[in-house]
Automatic annotation (TrEMBL):
InterPro entries: CBM6, Cellulose-bd_IV, DUF4996, Galactose-bd-like_sf, GP_PDE_dom, PLC-like_Pdiesterase_TIM-brl. This is Glycerophosphodiester phosphodiesterase family protein. SMART domains: CBD_IV. Residues 331-475 form the CBM6 domain. Keywords: Signal. Pfam families: CBM_6 (PF03422), DUF4996 (PF16387), GDPD (PF03009). Residues 1-29 form the signal peptide. Residues 65-161 form the GP-PDE domain.
């Protein structure tokens, strides 16, 4: 590990400043002042985009760790939308990752898929629709999907996105290499050549030909074991970064000697959105323990750029060293820690675990790994779970669940304490993905005394149920 890791806002941590707890070793930032985000943060003069560009070119041992927001801040707005771009920068990302496609009339627009079906109220291939037709479509909430709620947002052009980014930060132009000339025209027109980050795994000679004829183009290269020789082929003219993807730590691109050579002249970009991009070192694993993801990628894999689906929580870790800390006075119980015994501690309609984690052999509750999060799946009406919760002090508490579902309705539950009457049904939100969980407040409050209480979560039989449960949380109600 480097003896010094640049974290945020000029904060530097020495090896001696690493702190050990019973379950976590975390990098803790020694903050030198109040951290700022978004357009307020422009240390060293100029705009936040100036700072992000200077930081991107810094490959030194104290290089600042940069955050790239996958499809922008889709947790706040539709993916690849104007408000998602603004939210990503405001939440602290230096880079937004956006997906580029061409319309039938050759205009670069923001769209991840080859079709508009998943993320809009339309159908058809992007390249079969004109710009006018594409801009008539309404974007769906979050990551979209068949049952995601429609919004009033429209599909942006790349030019719109680049004008937003001009003073705010950088844009990773994903899927854009086949349209590099059309993208270049947009970057020149909007005065944002240095803001746009080209990316591909194309043959090196093709990349170098483009770079030689497009002065100022910023480029990063994608590598796996299949094309790791590209690092040597670039010679002295290295890309600003390498997006290193590996599904096993034994892959050649994941080995430290190779990564040391890469990091000596470029930045190492790691993707943590789901399993198989950086083995199993994901956002979700990092929230449980940063050593399972983000922190180990910095320490052992030379990562200095993270592409994430959890901008806010990654930024918090960069500033504090904690993954998903429990709020002061709150109680959290992991979903898989239900009380034992069919018909006593739980009731499940299937006799066997239908999911992929056999954590509690002989019990029928469906425990699963969802990109690093241990959660319960196959939720069905008529099932129930009980938990022991240790309340730290007398008070009134509100219950929340961290849950996920791509469906509307997703499901519902009731909650009761100490064999009391159940609450009214609480609806589970559509998070637009089974793998993307959100903490959802229930509005159910309960007065509890200090000590152990039993909580029962029950799924009404008359409600459609198809959601995942990560954990249950009780937060003190402060008046």
């Amino acid at each position: 590990m480097n003896p010094r890791i640049r974290i945020r806002a000029g904060a530097v941590v020495s090896a001696a400043a690493l702190v050990l707890s019973s379950t976590v070793v975390s990098v803790v930032a020694a903050q030198t002042g109040t951290q700022q985000t978004g357009t307020q943060r422009a240390v060293g003069g100029g705009t936040p985009a100036d700072r992000a560009y200077r930081d991107l070119l810094d490959h030194g041992p104290d290089a600042r760790i940069l955050t790239a927001a996958h499809r922008a801040q889709w947790r706040s707005a539709p993916e690849n939308s104007v408000p998602a771009i603004l939210a990503a920068f405001e939440d602290g990302a230096e880079i937004v990752e956006l997906d580029v496609r061409l319309t039938a009339d050759g205009v670069p627009v923001l769209m991840h898929d080859t079709t508009v079906d998943r993320t809009t109220d339309g159908t058809g291939r992007v390249d079969s629709l004109t710009l006018a037709q594409v801009q008539q479509l309404r974007l769906k909430k979050g990551l979209g999907g068949a049952q995601a709620e429609l919004t009033d947002e429209r599909v942006p052009t790349l030019a719109q996105a680049m004008r937003l980014a001009e003073d705010r930060g950088l844009v990773n132009l994903d899927k854009g290499w086949p349209f590099r000339e059309e993208i270049w025209d947009v970057l020149v027109e909007t005065g944002t050549v240095r803001n746009g980050l080209y990316k591909s795994d194309a043959p090196v000679d093709q990349v170098q030909e483009f770079r030689s004829t497009h002065r100022g183009a910023v480029y990063l290269h994608m590598i796996t074991d299949a094309n790791l020789a590209a690092v040597e082929e670039f010679g002295d003219d290295q890309p600003v970064a390498y997006e290193v993807n590996f599904d096993a730590a034994t892959d050649a691109v994941a080995r430290r000697p190779f990564l040391d050579r890469v990091a000596a002249r470029s930045r190492v970009w790691s993707n943590t959105m789901w399993n198989g991009l950086s083995e199993r070192m994901t956002d979700e694993a990092s929230l449980i323990d940063p050593l399972r993801g983000w922190e180990t990628l910095v320490r052992s894999y030379n990562t200095t750029i993270f592409q994430t689906d959890d901008v806010v929580k990654l930024e918090r870790w960069l500033g504090t060293g904690t993954g998903d800390p429990l709020p002061r006075g709150a109680v959290r119980v992991q979903a898989e820690d239900f009380l034992p015994g069919e018909g006593v501690g739980y009731h499940d309609l299937d006799a066997a675990n239908r999911s992929n984690l056999q954590m509690r052999p002989g019990e029928g509750v469906d425990i699963q790994d969802v990109d690093g999060a241990v959660s319960l799946g196959w939720m069905r009406g008529g099932e129930w779970l009980t938990y022991d919760v240790e309340v730290p002090r007398d008070g009134t508490y509100e219950l929340s669940v961290r849950a996920s579902s791509p469906y509307s309705p997703a499901g519902a539950y009731t909650v009761s304490f100490d064999d009391g009457a159940p609450s009214a049904p609480v609806e589970v939100w559509n998070t637009t993905s089974h793998a993307k969980q959100e903490l959802q407040r229930s509005g159910v409050t309960q007065r509890l005394t200090k000590g152990t209480h039993t909580l029962r979560l029950a799924l009404p039989e008359d409600a459609y149920q198809n959601w995942n449960l990560d954990f249950v949380q009780l937060d003190p109600v402060r008046r």
